[in-house]
Design goal:
alpha+beta, Jelly Rolls, disordered N terminus, 10 helices
């Protein structure tokens, strides 16, 4: 599934005027700019909208840039696309669009649910604009765009409808006012331990505009008949796709459990989806897909969990403080007393956060390796970057995770509502946060060595195959 929209402003008209103002800049910046073989071979091959470009745009952009979509302009036809061609080229060449903020060429690049355009597609769009953005054969338009149902479950195409849906209680959210929070419990109805293979949190309908985030954890009944905290379940923030649990591991939903909802609402909404009206009976749902009931007995899987890893180093006096028109940076350090595999990385912040990275330090060698870098992070699109299992970082015992995040409280930050304010650590939308959600598979020495050996064999086969 691909989505494409960049949401730096909450007001659609303001965003539209901002983008129009960039057209002269885009034209100047990209005049004579060539990328790839297609752009260099103008005379040999003409790139056209109906030939190649329309298909790329329909598959990656029109889902948001259409009538009624959250994109600030429509890209449903050549006539609609052509005036914006220089700006499209600028955004695509700079890899700002589609809105999947994950740096190319740094760290692990093999991701599940990666919305980024392939370099071949980027080269094609750049060449098309360099050649004058021609239409091509008018009698052969590109295949029409296919729009997913915005209320459909992300993983329904893979696994069907969820095996279990746990809703929140319905709540009315006013059109304006201060941040709101709700904490309550909902039973799961489970009678045995189950292994989750996919999970998604989905606000219903217009609720997407007002749900800032929705965290959930699981309690189970202990031997005394009292509920006891078991683990975090999942996390949702604006724009999040969902989570896939790798094969061979188990994120457990225990029997006789209940979900604790911790939901943060922002009346009026954030981003281009903001409705600016009261939303009645707002409901947020967790959908879960499970392995067969005897999966744990058959596979004997390692355990996976999702946790919030906080960053406390770099805070002024132990508290995150960003001065007016200023910047700051935080970092955190985490080690494990056993080997682990890092399955996903999701940095979290609010309106002033603009970048994040994940590194690992190996004490035995003194070497630091960068795993992921997000240099253009935005609170309007939270992504859980899911590493492909064969490439997910393997950390030996004692290796140290280093998590860094950067904040921009200046007028240059398009998400910043007021650069004149002091910003501190807090739960309100106007405050800031500094943590990352990371899914970890907990291994033993035997399992770690087995995965390392399997990867080495694959690399050797790949070299031989070349």
């Amino acid at each position: 599934m691909r989505l494409a929209v960049f949401l730096p402003y909450t007001d659609r008209g303001q965003l539209h005027e901002y983008l129009k103002s960039l057209l002269p800049l885009a034209t100047l910046a990209l005049a004579g700019f060539h990328t790839g073989v297609l752009a260099q071979g103008d005379a040999a091959h003409q790139v056209t909208y109906n030939g190649e470009v329309g298909k790329i745009i329909n598959e990656n952009c029109v889902v948001c840039h259409r009538e009624g979509g959250i994109g600030p302009m429509q890209f449903e036809s050549y006539e609609q696309v052509r005036p914006w061609a220089p700006l499209i080229q600028l955004r695509v060449a700079s890899k700002e669009m589609p809105p999947y903020a994950y740096d190319h060429g740094i760290g692990v690049q093999e991701l599940k649910g990666d919305w980024r355009l392939q370099q071949e597609d980027i080269d094609t769009i750049v060449a098309w604009v360099d050649q004058g953005a021609p239409l091509g054969d008018a009698d052969n338009p590109p295949p029409p765009a296919v729009f997913p149902d915005p209320d459909a479950w992300t993983f329904a195409t893979l696994y069907g409808e969820p095996d279990l849906i746990v809703p929140s209680v319905p709540m009315d959210i006013p059109a304006n006012g201060n941040d709101m929070w709700s904490k309550h419990y909902m039973p799961t109805g489970t009678t045995q331990d189950l292994c989750i293979k996919a999970i998604q949190v989905k606000p219903q309908g217009d609720a997407r505009a007002v749900v800032h985030h929705a965290n959930s954890s699981v309690d189970f009944l202990n031997e005394n008949g009292e509920y006891e905290r078991y683990s975090e379940l999942t996390e949702y923030a604006m724009g999040k796709w969902g989570e896939l649990v790798p094969d061979g591991v188990c994120r457990t939903l225990p029997a006789n459990s209940r979900v604790e909802w911790r939901i943060h609402f922002f009346p009026g909404g954030v981003g281009a989806t903001a409705q600016g009206k009261m939303i009645k009976d707002n409901v947020v749902e967790i959908g879960m897909w499970f392995h067969e009931p005897d999966y744990a007995e058959k596979v004997n899987p390692y355990k996976q969990d999702l946790k919030r890893y906080s960053m406390r180093e770099g805070y002024e006096g132990g508290t995150l403080v960003i001065p007016p028109h200023g910047y700051t940076m935080t970092q955190g350090f985490h080690t494990f007393d056993h080997p682990v595999r890092i399955d996903s990385f999701q940095p979290h912040g609010h309106l002033r956060m603009n970048a994040a990275s994940l590194e690992v330090f190996y004490p035995e060698t003194g070497r630091t390796e960068q795993l992921s870098q997000i240099s253009n992070w935005s609170a309007t699109w939270h992504h859980s970057h899911l590493y492909e299992s064969d490439f997910a970082p393997l950390l030996p015992t004692g290796a140290m995770l280093i998590i860094k995040q950067w904040y921009d409280n200046t007028a240059n930050n398009p998400n910043n509502p007021d650069p004149d304010q002091w910003v501190v650590d807090g739960s309100r939308t106007g405050d800031e946060m500094s943590h990352a959600w990371i899914a970890v598979t907990h291994l033993d020495d035997e399992g770690f060595e087995k995965l390392v050996a399997e990867r080495k064999q694959r690399e050797e086969r790949s070299v031989v195959g070349q």
